[in-house]
């Protein structure tokens, strides 16, 4: 909004008040987006938590077959804290982003759509006092539709990269210079798999206080940097990356995600006063996936989001092996519960997973230069 005001209303003012020129720069708006999102979440935190406690009563249902300590220590903690995160995320993005930029609207479509699905899932669990929410197949179908709608928006309305107009429907490979495969409209399916996979991977990870929040912020930091680089012709050319006009605005969205995550962590740090629930985890994971698609750096999401991939694979392997043999590979899945069963304290699991997430993000960023 402020960028729009700068362009349309401040033409006669910024010449006399030079400070208004700061709004032109993505770097300045990125910093302000982060700060704004954090302030919004922190400001609404205590009142929102008290209101949710009054509305939800017994709070988020805890799996009976889960960690016994969780049943006694976490019972009664309200969920749907993702509403706080989304308020900050949308506030920071809409106030400081370029609202004429199609990438901004594409990632917000995914975030809002997945946030709504997560909210309905959380609402179903709380009202039924059960860990079962919306049907898994129905949720995946709706997630795929939302993802494909956002991708179609990018393909149809985003500015075509001058060096390769087909890049909007192509998959670029890291480590190999100029290696792209044009999928044409089949890219809708590929991109949807990336976004849906990211959303559900973060959802699996969200099982301990602060476990998903910080890795999401780390991934958002990495993709915010990537968006800035590939959206700048000079930097993209220097690093031999594919230049994507206009995608730099995604950095403002990623900054808002970081700020919202910081604000939420104030209340979600152990012992958590509120859980983000599916409202937050699906929206944040979908947003990360959408940022990967927008920047044409989908494949390195496997590295940057490697922690989320490991959590998801642990569930898939556990279920598949149990169906085949009747035995379990892990003591409990997702894998963070396996380490709890081994005797690790919750804070140990969380902090060590944060460290792993940081190292994977740095490794993913390193691939940008290894070409």
The gist of it:
It contains 15 helices and 2 strands. It has 371 residues and is mostly helical. It has a two-stranded antiparallel ribbon with strand order 1-2.
The portion of residues forming beta strands comes to under 5%
* Major sheet description: 2 strands, antiparallel
Strand order of the largest sheet: 1-2
Structural class: mainly alpha
Q: List the helices and strands in order.
A: HHHHHHEEHHHHHHHHH
Number of strand elements: 2
* Mean pLDDT value: 89
Portion in helices? 55-70%
Q: What is the count of helical runs?
A: 15
What distance separates the N and C termini? 38 Å
Radius of gyration: 21 Å
Overall 3D geometry?
Answer: globular
Low-confidence stretches at least 5 residues in length (pLDDT < 50)?
Answer: none
Write the layout of secondary structure elements.
Layout lengths: L1 H7 L17 H31 L11 H6 L8 H15 L5 H27 L7 H22 L12 E3 L7 E3 L4 H19 L7 H18 L2 H6 L11 H19 L8 H18 L6 H4 L1 H20 L9 H7 L4 H21 L5
Antiparallel strand pairs: 1-2
Helix pairs in contact: 2-4, 2-10, 4-5, 4-10, 4-11, 5-6, 5-11, 6-7, 6-11, 7-11, 7-13, 8-10, 8-11, 8-15
Commentary on this structure:
With 371 residues, the chain is an all-alpha fold. 65% of the residues lie in helices and 2% in strands. The protein has helices at residues 2-8, 26-56, 68-73, 82-96, 102-128, 136-157, 187-205, 213-230, 233-238, 250-268, 277-294, 301-304, 306-325, 335-341, 346-366, and strands spanning 170-172, 180-182. A two-stranded antiparallel sheet has the order 1-2. The longest helix has 31 residues, at 26-56. The protein starts with a helix and ends in a 5-residue tail after the last helix. The mean pLDDT is 89.
